[in-house]
Amino acid sequence: MNIAVLPGDGIGKEIIAEAVRVLQALDEPFKFSFAEVGGAAFESHGHPLPEATLKLAQSADAVLFGAVGDWKYDALEPHLRPEQAILGLRKALRLFANFRPAICYSELTQASSLKPELIAGLDLLIVRELTGDIYFGQPRGRRDAPDGPFAGAPEAFDTMRYARPEIERIARVAFAAARKRRGKVTSVDKANVLATFQFWREVVTEVHADYHDVALDHMYVDNAAMQLVKAPKSFDVIVTGNMFGDILSDEAAMLTGTIGMLPSASLNDQGQGLYEPSHGSAPDIAGQGIANPLATILSAAMMLRHSGNRAEQALRVENAVKCALASGVRTPDIWSEGTSKVGTRAMGDAVIEALQAQ
Ligand code: IPM
Ligand code: MG
User: Is the pLDDT of residue 26 over 90?
Assistant: First the structure.
């Protein structure tokens, strides 16, 4: 299996190093190829997604991605900002299906700001459409307003749009995922206001006809944001567009108490995928060796499952993470009284030890 490893910026290098060590401990024929991306690539190549990095990613079976971004790039022109690297990869590799699971580990129930009984045993999956919507819709840009109450004034605009096949394929991904889980899909939209999402609701309902063993309900995004904190366990699979998925997945992440534990997978229809932690580059703690590598290690497990056809190995890694937590080691972001505080490297060691003890 050819794995393109793109550590990126901030804590990216530290957390990726641990995920790679965990993969190496599996003793499988993996080939790792490293390349720069994000701010790091801008420094060395003048672009956040250099041609060579993109080529490497395109030719790999899977991409293991750290994180990109730093405040010091805030003043750069939009197309040179580190975030463009991840958006460019999503587009170039046609990674339309983004899986963001939010799982609350029993050892970490106390880390959530919600009452333990609300989140104990939480296991929901957000399926976010990743290559359409207002993120990529054309036209976009700046101009002088051609009409309206502020005609003639400078304005900026983006375009929210979804084509039928785009909605169909993400709906199918969500229904298929629900079949392997608790059999329930909640489609989140804004059909009370937006034409794009009236169409979304229509198409999702049509696709549902092929999945009658799965239950479907529809929810407006504002209500979904509320239900996520009120009764998060009422959800199984949430399917939604790019923009709403961005926002709701951060909210869902925090239900579990820390974004430091949450992996993600972005897939195309060939099974090729990009795997990254749901959190960012955390420049404030970069280089200190205290970042939590578990989200990246769990992303590597998703890679084994979705792009590597190695479900058994994926489960081994996930179990090793649970064992490491059970042994009481915690990075600072998930530390609580009575557990032992460790750094990035030691957390990686604990997972590898648990793997070897299996
Ligand atoms: C995410 C991030 C990205 C997004 C940014 C970094 C472009 O917030 O993966 O959720 O908005 O999709
Ligand atoms: Mg986001």
Answer: yes
For ligand 1, is residue 87 a contact (CB within 6 Å)?
yes
280 and 341 in a single domain? The answer is: yes
Residue 109 pLDDT grade (very low, low, confident, very high; cuts 50, 70, 90)? confident
pLDDT at 133 over 90: yes
Is 259 found in the same domain as 197?
yes
Given 73, 105, 135, 211, which residue is catalytic?
A: 135
Calpha distance 186→189 (Å, rounded): 10
Q: State whether 232 and 127 are in the same domain.
A: yes
Measured distance CA(41)–CA(152) in Å, rounded: 39
Q: What's the confidence (pLDDT) of residue 340?
A: 96
Beta bridge partners of 184: 215
pLDDT of residue 256: 87
> How does pLDDT run across 135-163, given as a tens digit for each residue?
999 999 999 999 999 999 999 999 999 99
Measured in degrees and rounded to the nearest 5, phi and psi for residue 247 equal -75, -50
Let me know if 246 is a catalytic residue: yes
Count up the domains in the chain and report the number. 2
Rounded to an integer, what distance in angstroms lies between the CA atom of residue 310 and that of residue 183?
Answer: 24
Residue that is last in its domain, among 236, 267, 298:
267
User: What distance in Å separates the CA atoms of residue 329 and residue 346, rounded to the nearest whole number?
Assistant: 8
Give the model's pLDDT for residue 112: 85
* Cβ neighbourhood burial of 127 (10 Å; 0-12, 13-18, 19+): buried
Active site residue 135: yes
Q: Which atom belonging to ligand 1 lies closest to the Cα atom of 90?
A: 12
Shared-domain flag, residues 218 and 305: no
pTM of the model: 0.94
In the set 190, 236, 275, 333, the catalytic residue is 190
The residue range of the domain holding 81 is 1-95+270-358
